[in-house]
Give the backbone structure.
Amino acid sequence: MVNFPAVKYLPAHKLEGKVNKSASILLVEDVALIAASEAKTLRNEGYAVILVFSGEEAFEKVEAAPGAISLILMDIDLGPGKMDGIQTAERILKKYDIPIVFVSSHTESEIVEKTEQILSYGYVVKGSGSSVLAASVKMAFKLHAAHLALQQEVVERKRADESRKASEAIFRLIASRTPDHIVVQDRELRYLYVVNPQLGLTEQGMLGKTDRDILPGEDAEYLTRIKRQVLEIGQPIQLEVSLDSLTGKKEYFDGSFIPKFDSAGAADGLIGYFRNITERKQSEETLRKKDELMQMVLDNSRDGINLLDLKKGRYTLMSPGQVALTGFSAEEMNNFSDAEALERVHPDDREISAGQKKLIAEGEKQPWITEYRWRVKSGEYRWFSDSRKLVHDQLGQPIALVGVSRDITERKQAEETLRQALADKDKLMRELQHRVKNSLNMVASLLGLEESNLPDERTRLIFANIKNRIHTISSVYDQLYRTGGIDRINLGEYIQQLVNGLSQSYVAGSNTVSIQTQLEEIQIDVQQALSLGIIVNELVTNALKYAFPTSEKPGVICIGLERAENNASLTVVDNGVGISPEKLKAGGLGLVLVKMLTRQIGGEFEFDCQSGCAARVSFGLD
């Protein structure tokens, strides 16, 4: 709050220094005759007179109605033992601003000096005459009016000064809360006022100086030229400028210079408002570079890049690559609606429409990739691989769909060619497998025909063994043909098939020998399977031929196949009579063949025929 000096009571009859003759005068005189004479003179001048004879009585009158008294005519000597006029005046003036004129017969300098120490408006020597008294009163009124006017002017000036200071303080407070750099300069462009100095400068370092004193040469000359132009034309200038700071960095500002005028209307200085926009400019530059980079990507990408505005339902961006892929111009593509674009999708690929709608409805944040055929401008359907991703606003709502398209027609054609080639190859392999199987069967059949014409049992037995081995090989190709495989078969199924064939040849109709199997399904290479198949054939055939020479007890042959991680084992066990060490040492073609084939597949062969026979082939799996 602004505090102004206290103002004493101002009588209402004083106006602009004019004397109001209806004013009331308090006459303080202890000598009755003199009092009567002075009162008469004053009344003749038109004043109302209140007469009192002591200082105490005078003070009481003023206290009772201060506004009713316009002037006090005060005698100095007011009787012995009482307050004199000077003391009474001091007491009254402490509380009230009422003009006092002293009336006394004293002309001594010490008396006059005492009255001068009190704010009085005249000193009248008694006996000077009525005209002097009247003139002194009039002059006192005028002097008091002038005093009041001067006092009022001082008060108003103080009020204005305090108001200006308060306004300036408020302005500084507001300005200090803003990021703006605010300056006031005189006509010589010296800084008079600075708020939020920039460029590493301080307020103290700028006040009283010009731009040429504080800024580098080019920056100072540029700003000086602009500011002088503002003063010359008397119009504001708005500008964006880059300046070198004292820290060596270039900073950017956006602001205005506004002329300020004196009372005659002449520009006597200017006001500058500037905001540091360095971060904004840097952001704009970053965005500009990103835009340039994006445009470079768009212009040089062989893939098509497009942007579908979901609110408008239209494509608002088509890269040159997209234009090249479709055959349509950029203008034509940008006029495509989403519905029109989907209508050009091949009828068999229309699920792309449902997929896109689902993508948008669910607000999916992961890219959606699909392949479809699209009718380009020439009318031809081309294959496209399309990756689409939703763009969301700050509230997470989908607003656009970004698509990257690639023409994969040639790849699709190559895939179709390869698929057809693979199908043809598969067909050829199946035909070859069938022919190999038939060829092996024909060889076995020829051996069978010749077998009946052989003269002795031993030769017929050799032919039978050869036929079994041929059937073993033929079974591999039979399984490949049935399963559509090329180079791998199910070993368990293959062995079971071999066992079934041997059962039909040797065990059918017999109640004394049975073959039991426990075979795991193991996928294995054809070449490895052929070796194991012949091994099974040799071991089982030997057991069927030699393990059960009599029918004293039921014969059982157990065949097992099991896997343990990357290894497998094949076992053939019988409860027959076994083989003597001499025969085992001599060996036959079958046993030699088993050992040779085991080494061929990198396996190990174990054989025990002390009580029955037990054979194990252990081998690794690919």
The longest helix spans residues 130-176. The chain is about 45% helix and 25% strand. Confidence is low (pLDDT under 50) at residues 1-19. The chain has four domains: 24-154, 178-281, 301-407, 487-622.
